[in-house]
Amino acid sequence: MIHIGIYGYGNLGRGVEYAVSKAPDMELKAIFTRRDPATVHPHTNTPVYKAEDAPSMKDQIDVMILCGGSATDLPEMTPALGHLFNVVDSFDTHAHIPQHFAAVDKACKEAGTVGLISVGWDPGLFSLNRAYASSILPDGSYYTFWGKGVSQGHSDAIRRIPGVKDARQYTIPVEAALEAVRSGSAPELTTRQKHTRECFVVAEEGADLKAIENAIVTMPNYFDEYDTTVHFISEEELKRDHAGIPHGGFVIHSGKTGWNEENTHVIEYSLKLDSNPEFTSSVLTAYARAAYRLSQEGKNGAMTVLDIPPAYLSAKSGEQLRKELL
Amino acid sequence: MIHIGIYGYGNLGRGVEYAVSKAPDMELKAIFTRRDPATVHPHTNTPVYKAEDAPSMKDQIDVMILCGGSATDLPEMTPALGHLFNVVDSFDTHAHIPQHFAAVDKACKEAGTVGLISVGWDPGLFSLNRAYASSILPDGSYYTFWGKGVSQGHSDAIRRIPGVKDARQYTIPVEAALEAVRSGSAPELTTRQKHTRECFVVAEEGADLKAIENAIVTMPNYFDEYDTTVHFISEEELKRDHAGIPHGGFVIHSGKTGWNEENTHVIEYSLKLDSNPEFTSSVLTAYARAAYRLSQEGKNGAMTVLDIPPAYLSAKSGEQLRKELL
């Protein structure tokens, strides 16, 4: 059995708890929290400890799955925990991956542990598909579309506008852009041509709705480069119709072969997820299995999904995999 | 530079010649043929040798890409050449993969070489997607659909019917079945519900068309379990409208998460290929890079796509990949 620890018990941590329960070769040993453990109630009867107790359980946990946020938690947490445990995180700030990789690599090499970073679906499964497709058809180009799904960052940005009580923002890929890419025509697409944004906003009583709408659609970086629709709804409607955290998206690569580039090939990968955090947790858990196996082989240092043989994610043996699904 | 040899110069071999020409880190050193080399005219000015001359070039070739057929060539060819070279093949008889793996593993371990088998899209990229998806969402099920595309085996079967001069058979996935699977409902589907078969047949003059049609649609294993449509066309029409070798397909996995299985996730991978052999050749060539790197690391024995870290397929460094496409 692979002994798993969960570090951080929010949406992601709860999803990992579920995913580990479905893994025939894993046992969840401990949940660590920065809150008062007495206030944390897991679904299973896994013991909950204070975050600072983690070092004392070094010998009881094979892989620690880090369920913190990318903005402030993981840049500190992954190297610090990587000094003690094999770790897996879902660091998703694309621009800062090289520096995060370097910090985790240093910590894990010093400790002789495996640090598997940026595991999830983007970065993660989408990265895999960009890598496979562009390696196989180098004479081509790939496109990534996100949605339809809830963007937490954009929802938060709306909530910070005066007069806004709550909000939910959906990122939606433009169907015409998807079709153009699928046709293999390798179009040049602007930000506005690829995605639209749809916002459901609960305003405070008496708030200036026109002013809120204007503040949203002109917001730099978040909305100004997109076609954005704003709907004002009641708190009840928000709770009833927008409680889920769905997401998904598409990686589409088209490339040519033949001496006259006469043949076009289109590779498409897509996800349609009812729950973004639960799916990400499932990916983290499968890669925890890989981190354990690599550690058993004596590997150490930082790695990403691009470095992991696919068979290492499966509870099945190589022989079973070749027989059943190759 | 990675020095590549091509063993067998049919459609696949020609595709590899093109793909290697596009790889910045590869050089095509030799083409081997069982025909008279004087009758083989490559597109590039690569020297052509007799198949039996291959052993004498052992030290000049890093990876030999085997472009023979699965029925009779590869079961002999891959172990035999694996005794001399790192080899990559596209062995695609699913049921015989375990025994082919064992034979190649034995040969390559004795020789200290890498033998990467069953590389292509199914088996190959489709296998990867079945493995990733079922590892991440073990509480789920995957479906594979093929087409729309030309099935060489089914076309050949029609050509063997008396009175048939030429034929082309397309395998077509049933749209309603695709939609049912995409909905996440995990339907049970019969062979007939998943695919239809469409045949374009050139009959000999005076042939009994009714008899040919009946022979096709009732043919055991090939057609009897499918809804099959037969069109009789002229030789000119066949040449004009059915000269290409397109193919493709879909791997769709749906799975559930949540303590009440309340969330459904759908992972879909699809290929739309203008030229089946040229695309397969592109996959073989990317995996030849991986075979070379694994050999340089001292690895040996048989492997499949499930054993290969994705980054090994790319001409780019790990650092570039993390920066550009993670």
* Spans of at least 5 consecutive residues with low confidence of chain A: none
Shape of chain A: globular
Quaternary assembly? homodimer
Number of E-type strands of chain A: 14
General description of the model:
- The structure is a homodimer of 326-residue chains.
- The mean pLDDT of chain A is 97.
- In chain A, 34% of the residues lie in helices and 26% in strands.
- In chain A, strand 4, helix 2 (73-82) and strand 5 form a beta-alpha-beta unit.
- Chain A is α/β, with parallel strands linked by helices.
- In chain A, helix 1 crosses helix 10 and helix 2 (73-82) runs parallel beside helix 3.
- The first copy, chain A, is globular.
- Chain A has helices at 11-21, 73-82, 97-111, 125-136, 152-159, 175-182, 191-194, 209-217, 235-241, 276-296, 318-324; strands spanning 2-7, 26-33, 48-50, 63-66, 86-88, 114-116, 140-146, 149-150, 164-173, 195-203, 227-232, 247-257, 263-273, 301-303.
- The two termini of chain A are 26 Å apart.
- Strand 13 of chain A pairs antiparallel with strand 13 (263-273) of chain B, so a sheet runs across the interface.
Q: What are its keywords?
A:
homodimer; 326 residues; alpha/beta; four-stranded mixed sheet; 11 helices; 26% strand
Summarize the structure.
2 copies of one chain form a homodimer. The first copy, chain A, is α/β, with parallel strands linked by helices.
What is the fold's blueprint, element by element?
The structure is a homodimer of 326-residue chains.
Chain A: E1 2-7, H1 11-21, E2 26-33, E3 48-50, E4 63-66, H2 73-82, E5 86-88, H3 97-111, E6 114-116, H4 125-136, E7 140-146, E8 149-150, H5 152-159, E9 164-173, H6 175-182, H7 191-194, E10 195-203, H8 209-217, E11 227-232, H9 235-241, E12 247-257, E13 263-273, H10 276-296, E14 301-303, H11 318-324
Parallel strand pairs in A: 1-2, 1-4, 2-3, 4-5, 5-6, 6-14, 10-11
Antiparallel strand pairs in A: 7-12, 8-9, 9-10, 12-13
Helix pairs in contact in A: 1-10, 2-3
